[in-house]
Amino acid sequence: MECRVLSIQSHVVRGYVGNKSASFPLQVLGFEVDSINSVQFSNHTGYSHWKGQVLTADELHVLYEGIKLNNVHHYDYVLTGYTRDTSFLEMVVDIVQELKRANPNLVYVCDPVLGDHGSMYVPQNLYPVYKNKVVPVADIITPNQFEAELLTGKNISTEKDAVEVMDLLHAMGPDTVVITSSDLPSRLGDRFLVSLGSQRHVRPDGSRTTQRVRIEVPKVDAVFVGTGDLFAAMMLAWTHHYPNDLKTACEKTFSVMHHVIQRTISYAHELAGPGRRPSPPQLELRMVQSKADIEDPAIVAEATVIS
Amino acid sequence: MECRVLSIQSHVVRGYVGNKSATFPLQVLGFEVDSVNSVQFSNHTGYAHWKGQVLTAEELNVLYEGIKLNKVNQYDYILTGYSRDTSFLEVVVDIIQELKKANPSLVYVCDPVMGDQGAMYVPENLLPVYKDKVVPLADILTPNQFEAELLTGRKIITEEDAVEVMDLLHKMGPETVVLTSTDLPSKRGDQFLVALGSKKIVKPDGTNANQKICLDIPKVDAVFVGTGDLFAAMLLAWTHHHPNDLKAACEKTVSVMHHVIKRTITYANEMAGPGKKPSPAQLELRMVQSKADIENPAIIVEAKVLQKSSH
To answer: What are the tens digits of pLDDT across the range A69-108?
Structure first.
């Protein structure tokens, strides 16, 4: 498999977020990963302390120039996640547009990281950039419920709302949309959360069809960091292997997430000791230990095809 | 296996040198790798063009401070390679000394990158820093012949010279020394190059002993970049699994190198086409494709144990 991904995300010295979360799993699955580190921090910002440096939009441009001057700016995928800087994001859009001109089949996987649980955790001025410039060039997006609502201006209270929101997102650009988590009630009870996916296809005869799926995912009582980055990377991988089967791509992706998270929470509790809440360092994803699950995930999540 | 490595090396967006070369193989073998990127370049400097940014000594210090403030400055291994900046190298030395205080069992694997084939390709003022500060802290050292000669002030013409140079390097600090390549003639002919290794061990009865080995490695007609970084990383991994058996550790390390290089040269020649020399971009190591070889290298070389000696 000759598949090259350009991933523009954070780097942390210790732990698994951003490029640290995305690269290893993709490489393990045989993807060539070119990575531009948008920041270099000691660790993620959920620890008591964090220190490091950020890459400016100009410096990003310089790095891309180097790749271009050598005529190796040919990618099959671009992957982006958490960003805090509008000028950086705008430079990313320019790069994606140029790469799409170089390869019209390029797939841009975009996690439109804006916030969660009703509030934004990036500067507000990123929102119009995502809405007007980023999402329109994305092919696959992985918003959570809050981000999907923000981008479309529509609230999600029922599954029907979610389907409408995904259709609105399709209309903005991406053919594949996965709402990674929602507050919708699960048929399996309150220990589960509901995720939904939607993929538009054009049939050989030119007509359009949409596959929609619902996945029920066991809740885990802990705050993980880097899981969204892992999710987007694995969606990239599994939609690559199942380009016309969102059901299977989601089952594989959600299953990998489950295995990594279970291994992580077990280990974190071991380290913390009985009755103690694990700390951010203890909750770092057990990524290298999950290599076998990443390579060949046992399916533990079933996606239901919905109309 | 709970084993954490701090690797302070270059990062390239595209390709496999520095941390890009070392990290994936170590992770595949189950090591936790914390990586400080000393530079971020578009690609290695053997391409027609390269662009990017360097980390200053001060910025390195700041990153380490972050790790320290969170009290997670505990490592089993440190790994360093190519460096161009004396002040950066000196901060690296400070960090290692502090980490060794935090964990006296810490193993520092150092590739003292200074040059090759008789010429230095880093600034000259790095030599005294390596000689006086870095090498004394190192536990495992992977110089090539030129670097070994430079550090000891002794030329290597015969195998005896190589043995003496490795002993001189032991005296400077590291208990394990591997001369990754030499110009010594191989008994298997001129299609092979000779590498040597030496490890000081303490026997159960408390006396010192020394295991010395040599290996004949098939030459490949191409210039690879990042292979030294992969070598040091794999030597870290295999000495970890074979702590008292340098022979086995070197056989595994050299075998992995061979598989990766063969896969790379085959692919590069395919990409370049018949009769054409592959470009630097085409010669990038086929790292992710070599995962199975990294995990479990088929042994393709047998190390010869040289006559043991006690000191």
So the answer is: 999 999 999 999 999 999 999 999 999 999 999 999 999 9
- Of the candidates B82, B84, B67, the one whose C-alpha atom is nearest the C-alpha of residue B21 is B82
Q: Given this model, what pLDDT does residue A223 score?
A: 87
The H or E element spanning position A260 is helix A246-272
Long-range own/partner contacts, residues B89-94 (CB < 8 A, 24 or more apart): B89/B126, B89/B129, B89/B130, B89/B133, B89/B134, B90/B57, B90/B129, B90/B133, B91/B57, B91/B60, B91/B61, B91/B64, B92/B8, B92/B60, B92/B134, B93/B129, B93/B133, B93/B134, B93/B137
B32 contacts on A by Cβ (under 8 Å): 288
Q: Over range A35-53, report the average pLDDT.
A: 98
- Number of residues in chain A: 307
CA angle B283, B230, A6 (to 5 degrees): 60
B229 is catalytic: yes
pTM over 0.90: yes
The predicted-structure confidence for B162-216, as pLDDT tens digits, reads as follows: 999 999 999 999 999 999 999 999 999 999 999 999 999 878 898 888 999 999 9
Q: Per the structure block, which two tokens stand in for B86? A: 């004396």
Question: The tokens 């533990």 sit on which residue?
Answer: A300
- Which residue blocks in A29-158 are alpha helix, DSSP H? 57-69, 86-102, 126-129, 135-137, 145-152
Which runs of consecutive H residues, i.e. helices, occur in chain B? 18-28, 57-69, 86-102, 126-129, 145-152, 159-172, 227-241, 246-272, 291-295
ipTM computed for the complex: 0.96
Nearest to B257 by CA among B302, B282, B225, B227: B227
Residues of chain B contacting residue A51, judged by C-beta atoms under 8 Å apart? 62-63, 65-66, 69
Q: Would you call A11 an interface residue with chain B, using a CB distance cutoff of 8 Å? A: yes
How far apart are the CA of A12 and the nearest CA of chain B, in angstroms?
8
Whether residues B67 and A43 touch (CB distance < 8 A) is answered with: yes
Please tell me which of the candidates B11, B287, B288 has its beta carbon nearest to residue A37.
Answer: B11
Is the Cβ–Cβ distance between A240 and A176 less than 8 Å?
A: no
- Catalytic residue (one of A229, A245, A293, A296): A229
Q: Residue B309 has what DSSP assignment?
A: B
What does the alpha-carbon distance between residue B171 and residue B173 come to, in Å, rounded to a whole number? 5
The rounded percent of chain B whose pLDDT value lies above 90 is: 93
Q: Please tell me the number of Cα atoms within 13 Å of A70 on its side-chain side.
A: 26
Tokens of A96: 């994606």
pLDDT digits (tens, 9 = 90+) for B253-286: 999 999 999 999 999 999 999 999 999 999 999 9
Could you say which of B139, B216, B229, B293 is catalytic?
B229
Strand ranges inside chain A, DSSP E:
4-12, 32-41, 52-54, 77-80, 107-110, 115-116, 119-120, 140-141, 176-182, 192-202, 208-218, 303-306
Structure tokens at B106: 């810490």
Residue contact A70–B63, C-beta within 8 A: no
Mean pLDDT of A168-182: 97
Tokens of A247: 């059901």
Task: Name the CA radius of gyration of chain A, rounded.
Answer: 19
Using CB atoms and an 8 Å cut-off, which of residues 33-62 of chain A contact chain B? 33-37, 40-43, 47-53, 55, 59, 62
Do A66 and A78 meet the contact criterion of CB atoms below 8 Å apart?
A: no
